[in-house]
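pls design
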C-alpha cells in the first residue's frame, strides 16, 4: 500500500483551504488517521523544549491541554533530535506519551509509533505523531512517502506561525521578517469565550493602554496580565507584580512609590518603589479594589501626569509605566458605594477585560485537567496519569466556584489519593478521587451542617448544600453579606456571584 497522487493532492488542498489554521490542522490529522488506518494522530507545535498539541484525532480530549516536555518524554525528545522520520520498534523500552490516552484502549500500550519532525529552514517547529495498536501498522509506508507528508505539514505550520508572529508584532506588509517562535504565556482553552478573550488580549497588548482585568477569584487574571505584557512592545522590560490586598496601610505608599532615608522609623536607606522598578515596563496591580481612597488619589496622579514622589522626598521622578489592574470585585458597585474613585476607575478601565469563570468554559475543564495531570506526573515522577471517562464526566458536572485554582488543587489531591491505592508509576483518576464538597465552603460543626436532599445528581446536591450554608450564615449574621463571607471564609464578591447563580438574589 502507498500514498496515491490523489491522496497527497487532497492533503495539500485541505491545507490551503478553510477558514482558519485550526480547521486545516484538524482535517490534516483526521485524514492521515484514515489514510494510514492508525488509531491516533496528532499535530504538535514545538516551543521552549516542549511539544504543545494543536490538533488530535483518536486521542482523549485532555491531550489538547497537556504539555509534553522533552525531559519528561524520551520518545518526543528522540523525534526532536532526529531530523528525519523516526520509527520506534514495537518492543521499544521508551514510554509512549499517549499510552493510556487512546479512548477504549486505556489499559493497553501503543505498539506502533512513528514521529515526523517538522522544520522551517533549520528550526524545529513541530511534529506529527502517528500511533497504532498493531505493531506492523506502518511498515507498508516508505520513509519517502512519510517525508512528503512531513513536508506538507511543515509548510502549513510554518505559515501559520509566521502569520501569528507578524500579527503579534503588528508588522507591516513588506517588512523583512525571519521566522522565530514567539514566546508567549500559554493560556489553555478553546471555548468560545476564551478564544474571544485571547483575541482581545492580542488587540490590546500591542497598544499602551491601561487595562482593567476583572473576574472571580481563581480564574487566571495574573496569567492574562502576563500575556498582555509578553505581547506588548514592553516585553523586554520588567513586569512588576504587587498584590494590593496584602499591603498593610502603613507601608502601602512606600511599596508603590518608594521612600528616602529617614522618611519614617525604619527607613535606613533610600528605596525604590514598584513604579520605579517597572519604569519602561509594566506594573500589575492585583486586587486593585483593596487600595485605600488616599492611595487611589496618589495612583490617579501618576496615571495622569507620569510622575511620582518617594515618601519623604519633595522631588518628583518621571516614570514611563503601563498599568494593568485586576479585581474580583464589581468596581462599578464600589464606585457607587463610595469605596472606589470614579475618576480612577475610568482611567484604569480604558480597555476592560473580563475573564470567564470556569463553569462557563465548557470542555476547557477537561483540557485544563489534562494540563494539571501532566504537571503532577512530572512532579511526582510517575509514568502515566490518566483521566478515566468517568472522571472527565464528573469534572464537567461540577460548578467550580473556586475556578481554575480549585481545579488545579482538585487534580493534585486526586493524584495523591489515586497513587496511594496503586503500586507502580501509573495512576488512573476515577470519579471517586475527586471530593469537591470539601472546597465549597468552610468546615462547620457536624450538628450545624445542612442536610442534603435525597437526589442522585452531584451538582444538585452541591448547590442545595451551598444554598443552605449561605442561608445559615446570613441568618447568623443579621443578613450582612460581608460578615457572612467572613464566616464562610470566602470573598464577599464571590459570595454575591455564587448567590446569584444559585438564584438566591437578583
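designed seq:
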Amino acid at each position: 500500500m502507498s500514498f496515491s497522487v490523489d491522496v497527497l493532492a487532497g492533503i495539500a488542498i485541505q491545507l490551503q483551504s478553510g477558514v482558519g489554521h485550526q480547521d486545516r490542522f484538524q482535517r490534516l490529522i483526521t485524514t492521515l488517521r484514515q489514510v494510514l488506518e492508525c488509531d491516533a494522530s496528532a499535530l504538535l507545535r514545538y516551543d521552549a523544549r516542549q511539544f504543545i498539541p494543536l490538533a488530535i484525532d483518536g486521542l482523549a480530549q485532555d491531550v489538547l491541554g497537556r504539555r509534553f516536555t522533552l525531559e519528561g518524554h524520551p520518545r518526543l525528545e528522540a523525534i526532536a533530535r532526529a531530523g528525519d522520520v523516526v520509527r520506534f520498534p514495537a518492543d521499544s523500552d521508551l514510554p509512549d506519551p499517549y499510552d493510556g490516552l487512546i479512548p477504549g484502549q486505556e489499559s493497553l500500550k501503543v505498539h506502533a509509533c512513528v514521529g515526523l519532525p517538522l522544520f522551517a529552514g533549520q528550526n524545529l517547529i513541530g511534529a506529527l505523531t502517528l500511533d497504532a495498536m498493531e505493531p506492523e501498522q506502518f511498515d507498508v509506508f516508505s520513509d519517502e512517502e512519510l517525508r512528503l507528508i512531513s513536508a506538507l505539514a511543515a509548510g502549513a505550520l510554518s505559515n501559520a506561525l509566521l502569520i501569528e508572529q507578524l500579527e503579534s508584532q503588528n508588522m507591516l506588509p513588506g517588512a523583512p521578517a525571519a521566522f522565530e517562535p514567539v514566546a508567549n504565556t500559554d493560556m489553555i482553552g478553546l471555548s468560545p469565550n476564551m478564544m474571544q478573550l485571547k483575541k482581545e488580549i492580542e488587540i490590546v497588548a500591542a497598544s499602551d493602554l491601561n487595562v482593567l482585568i476583572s473576574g472571580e477569584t481563581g480564574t487566571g487574571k495574573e496569567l492574562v496580565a502576563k500575556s498582555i505584557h509578553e505581547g506588548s512592545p514592553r516585553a523586554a522590560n520588567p513586569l512588576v507584580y504587587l498584590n494590593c490586598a496584602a499591603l498593610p496601610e502603613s507601608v502601602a505608599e512606600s511599596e508603590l512609590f518608594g521612600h528616602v532615608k529617614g522618611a519614617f522609623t525604619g527607613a535606613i536607606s533610600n528605596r525604590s518603589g514598584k513604579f520605579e522598578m517597572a519604569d519602561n515596563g509594566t506594573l500589575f496591580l492585583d486586587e486593585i479594589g483593596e487600595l485605600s481612597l488616599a492611595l487611589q488619589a496618589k495612583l490617579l496622579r501618576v496615571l495622569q501626569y507620569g510622575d511620582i514622589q518617594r515618601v519623604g522626598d519633595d522631588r518628583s521622578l518621571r516614570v514611563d509605566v503601563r498599568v494593568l489592574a485586576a479585581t474580583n470585585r464589581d468596581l462599578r458597585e464600589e464606585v457607587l458605594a463610595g469605596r472606589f474613585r470614579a475618576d480612577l476607575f475610568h482611567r484604569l478601565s480604558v480597555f476592560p477585560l473580563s475573564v470567564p469563570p470556569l463553569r462557563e468554559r465548557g470542555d476547557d475543564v477537561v483540557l485544563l485537567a489534562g494540563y494539571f495531570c501532566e504537571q503532577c506526573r512530572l512532579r511526582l515522577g510517575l509514568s502515566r496519569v490518566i483521566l478515566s471517562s468517568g472522571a472527565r464526566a464528573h469534572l464537567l458536572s461540577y460548578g467550580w466556584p473556586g475556578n481554575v485554582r480549585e481545579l488545579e488543587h482538585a487534580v493534585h489531591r486526586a493524584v495523591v489519593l489515586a497513587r496511594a491505592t496503586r503500586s507502580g508509576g501509573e495512576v488512573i483518576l476515577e470519579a471517586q478521587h475527586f471530593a469537591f464538597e470539601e472546597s465549597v465552603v468552610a468546615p462547620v460543626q457536624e450538628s450545624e451542617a445542612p442536610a442534603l436532599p435525597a437526589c442522585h445528581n452531584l451538582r444538585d446536591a452541591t448547590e442545595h448544600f451551598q444554598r443552605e450554608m449561605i442561608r445559615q450564615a446570613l441568618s447568623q449574621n443579621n443578613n450582612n453579606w460581608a460578615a457572612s463571607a467572613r464566616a464562610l471564609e470566602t470573598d464577599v464578591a464571590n459570595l454575591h456571584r455564587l448567590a446569584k447563580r444559585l438564584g438566591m438574589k437578583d
